[in-house]
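Proteins fold reproducibly. Look at a sample protein:
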Amino acid sequence: MEEKPQHGSLGGLVAGVREECESGRTKELEWRKAQLGGLIRMITEEEDAIFDALHDDLGKHRVESFRDEVGVLAKSVRNTLQNLKKWASPEKVDVPLISFPCNARVVPEPIGVVLIFSCWNLPIGLALEPLSGAIAAGNAVVLKPSEFAPSTAAFLAANIPKYLDAKAVKVVQGGAEVGEELMEHRWDKVLFTGNARVGRIIMTKAAKHLTPVALELGSKCPCIVDCLDSKRECQVAVNRIIGAKWSTCAGQACVAIDYILVEEQFAPFLIELLKSTLKRFFTEPEYMARILNEKHFHRLTNLLEDDQVKSSIVHGGNADPKTLWIEPTIVLNPPLDSDIMMEEIFGPLLPIITVKKTEDCIAFLKSKPKPLAIYAFTNNEKLKQRIVAETSSGSVLFNDAIVQYGLDSVPFGGIGESGFGQYHGKYTFELFSHRKAVVRRSLLVEFMFRYPPWDEYKMGMLRRVFRFDYVSLVLALLAFWLLGIRR
């Protein structure tokens, strides 16, 4: 296993990674392909060890671990490997006719040395998804896994050096003090996944070196449930809501549904359907992940201690501090100024807020900070159009939840307080690339109206250039030449 760097040794580690980057090896396409291939082998060959680490850290069932982390990650890395040559190729772009003879290309080049802070709730996916994109873009990388998922962090530290280039890709374990020391060094880009409080610290420290930062933060992701057309559609919607709340790390995910908005007349039916489906899905406690640790367990149970919230519980509410397990809990119309409605829940508690009519949800959402995602179960096309046009969020998903996280063809990321910077698929490659403009011109053609001394003739010519009025420009140049004027 790779040793944990001591407090004073990180400078040497960072210097070594930068030296490896500056050697130019990481830019080579074959090197990038070899690293991605190694990553796929690690995910495949060490699958059982990954399952064990995720179970140790979060109590995840191996099927949930495969669905949310191992499977989606392997698919993503294979997609990157298949498309790498195309993504890394220069892109020819159009240039104005006035610049003839000229051509221009946009060349993707590596940013340099990248620092990635991953989070504890999806500790494999949130570490290796951005790592794969940073490597694909030709960068050297230092990965800092979350200390709150120690088994997963130990797995990454032990196995990444076995499958990837140990000189150009490093894993650094440790707590907040290690993260703070890492941020004292110069990086070419930092990606942080976590909460807004630490995100602000990362940005403050990055400002010292003017280091660009991408932040993937949490938020209160709302879910609008409209009156659907049939009982079957309602059942499918409830299945997907439960999947996006309780069977995804027990709601401990930034894209999990945080609360539901629904018409008050439809709420009783929705609640009863949620109850019956929860009973059918979670026949064993092991089918839902546990809460991370005692601190988070008490934070969540404290949200239910408010008298008005406690009296609003319509399902669940039980908790076991010994196993760090909290029963799926539904709260109907808690006070909007209560902690459960003001803070990101990040756990298996689901408030349901009723409105007079579904259209009122638009104004409600506009009054809140911009979330990472908005989910809506509806067949109303006008409502869908209004949600897209009148609200702002990292993404919008209709008639499902969370699945946008696994799509390589769309960008994933927040806006405003939910973060900035987008990744997944090609967007990860672009996040860790610099798009360099390369323009080539000939010395054979020259237009002297570009230069002083200035007069109204040259002003007129420049006006034609910036209006792309090429016919008039050519006629003016022809007249200029025929009159024999020399300027």
